[in-house]
Amino acid sequence: MAGKIESRLAELGIRLPEAAAPAANYVPWTVTGNLVFVAGQITLADGALKHQGKLGADITLEEGYAAARLCGLNVIAQLKAACGGDLDRIVRIVRLGGFVNASGDFHDHPKVINGASDLMVEVFGDKGHHARAAVGCASLPLNVATEVEAVAEIA
């Protein structure tokens, strides 16, 4: 029988990607005590990069929002792996760190990272509300539009 969060994902029509393997010398997530730290997740979907470019130059606000949402899906996939496949172990999403590949005159970083934040609340309900940072960057790896990292509490 599917858990509450898996049922919620199905209700929302969301199919989680496979948790991506790390691309360098790090682990995709680590657990210490009752906290899971998820490494920065980028805009990878079905093995291909999506949403590449700078907000304020190449990418619209709407595309940036979609990019952050995709990063959020990849965060949830990593959380699922960290929880042995049981997303119902998530007690709460504690914090998201959002990074936006932006031109110097772009100032809507929070609106972009709302793509990931809104997803967490859609999927986890009240347990999805979190602290957050939304930071503009001169560049991101592989020229992706966004990257999102997370901390979650698990049971």
Essential attributes:
single chain; 155 residues; alpha+beta; 5-stranded mixed β-sheet; two-stranded antiparallel sheet; 3 helices
Describe what this molecule looks like in 3D:
By secondary structure, the chain is α+β, with helices and mostly antiparallel strands. It is 30% helix and 28% strand. The protein is built from 3 helices and 7 strands; from the N terminus they run H-E-E-E-E-H-E-H-E-E. The strands form 2 sheets. A 5-stranded mixed β-sheet has the order 1-2-7-5-6. Strands 3-4 form a two-stranded antiparallel sheet. Helix 3 links the parallel strand 5 and strand 6 (131-137). 39% of the residues are buried. The model has no long low-confidence stretch (mean pLDDT 96).
Write the layout of secondary structure elements.
Elements: H1 4-12, E1 29-32, E2 35-41, E3 44-45, E4 48-49, H2 61-82, E5 90-101, H3 109-124, E6 131-137, E7 146-154
Parallel strand pairs: 5-6
Antiparallel strand pairs: 1-2, 2-7, 3-4, 5-7
Short description:
The protein is an alpha+beta fold and 155 residues long. It has three helices and seven strands, in the order H-E-E-E-E-H-E-H-E-E. The protein has helices at 4-12, 61-82, 109-124, and strands spanning 29-32, 35-41, 44-45, 48-49, 90-101, 131-137, 146-154.
Q: Overall pLDDT, averaged?
A: 96
Largest sheet: 5 strands, mixed
Walk across the major sheet and give the strand order.
1-2-7-5-6
Strand coverage percent: 25-35%
The general outline is globular
Q: What is the overall number of helices?
A: 3
Radius of gyration: 15 Å
- Work out the helicity level: 25-40%
